[in-house]
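Please review the protein record below. Let me know how this chain folds according to its tokens.
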Amino acid sequence: MGYAAAIRWNHSLLALCMVVQLLVGELMDVPGAGEEASALGWLGVAWAHGAEGGMVKESWMFELHEALGLVVVALLLIRVLLAMTDLPGANWRHLVPWVFAAGRAQLAREIGSQMEGWKQGRLAPPEEGESVARSVHGLMLLSALLVGAAGVLLFFGWNEHGRQSEWIEMVGEFHEAMVGVLEFLLALHVLAVILHQRQGHDIVSRIKPGG
């Protein structure tokens, strides 16, 4: 299956921005975060990166995280709009094959026929595993949208100068949990790309801009 130029560019920009965003999120300090800032105490400063012994007052990386997060949300919304078109490789039905009976049947067939190969680190050619690949892409997009939605709520609701409200704590915990899901799916995706390339399937050329 081919991909329209708009899909190729959106995919590349999303990949770049999301990788940078995840790195920044792991390294940054968060103004208003500290040991005493977690009302629920489930994740505490592990997700908020609070300053030891007090609250962070300023953090340029946090500002970068906010700005880059808005860029990612914009790119995700563009991808959703593209999914409503008939451009090659754009249709939303390609991203959620499990929603349809035929898609679920095809997904089950692919998993059943390819499971043994997966256990040995072998992947089928792309044309024989479209439903699996589409499902992973769809789950990544869905999890990224949930991360972005929670991030937008945090952008408007986070108190950089004091204790957070309980609902913001809950949104923050959901945000971090979904980041973990997204990181797992991204790692799975990258591993699949590496295996495909090593097996000579050259799937990168199918999605890279100008490919």
Observations:
- The radius of gyration is 20 Å.
- The CA atoms of residues 31 and 56 lie 5 Å apart.
